[in-house]
Design a protein that fits this description.
Elements: H1 2-47
Amino acid sequence: YAAQNDEIARLQLGNGVLLEKIINEKRKVSILEDLESQMQGLIDDKAH
């Protein structure tokens, strides 16, 4: 059981790291989407 528990702990740690990375990537995506809409707004302003 000890080996199994070690494996479970290791996997949970790995999952935590991956979740952290996913959260960071999602944050980057939302920043990029904000920038994109701001740029589109500027382009639209210039067009009119």
